[in-house]
Write a structure and sequence with these properties.
The protein is of the alpha/beta class. The chain has 5 helices and 5 strands; from the N terminus they run αβαββαβαβα. It has a 5-stranded parallel beta sheet, sandwiched between helices. β4, α4 and β5 form a beta-alpha-beta unit. α3 packs parallel to α4. The radius of gyration is 13 Å and the shape is globular. The two termini are 23 Å apart.
């Protein structure tokens, strides 16, 4: 956990339970061997609407895909980021620009400067955690 970044149990719970159910999953494609594919399926099982965001704009798990966050024609609540740390900051900035409520950087994705910018813009943010591992732990 990153005590200095607020990635704590309360932030995780708030994003998973209270922030909203529309999750843009950046990096999600139909490649079943990629982690994003399995995580998106878990999010769906827990009632989240997933929105695939990938340059290929593929339909994944029955949901229409988009090439970028800016292409999504409806509001998204959470932007779940499956790109490497070097690219993740730009995605966090896009999440702020499209009016998302929270940003979630997956396991191994860390960008402290992006975290600071995103929090300063008023969004909740989690880094280096996986929602598919956290969501089953919630009291439902």
């Amino acid at each position: 956990m990153y005590a200095d970044t607020g990635t704590d149990a309360e932030t995780i719970r708030r994003i998973l339970q209270d922030t909203g159910d529309t999750w843009a999953v950046v990096g999600l494609s139909n490649n079943e061997s990629r982690t994003a594919y399995g995580v998106a399926a878990v999010l769906q099982r827990f009632g989240k609407r997933i929105v695939p965001v990938h340059p290929k704009a593929e339909r994944v798990h029955g949901e229409e895909g988009y090439a970028s966050l800016a292409d999504i024609p409806f509001p998204v609540d959470v932007v779940d980021v499956f790109v490497n740390s070097e690219l993740a900051g730009a995605v966090a900035d896009e999440a702020v620009a499209v009016g998302a409520k929270a940003v979630w950087f997956q396991l191994g994705v860390i960008d402290d400067a992006a975290y600071e910018r995103t929090r300063a813009a008023g969004l909740d943010m989690v880094m280096d955690h996986c929602p598919a591992m956290e969501i089953p732990l919630l009291d439902r």
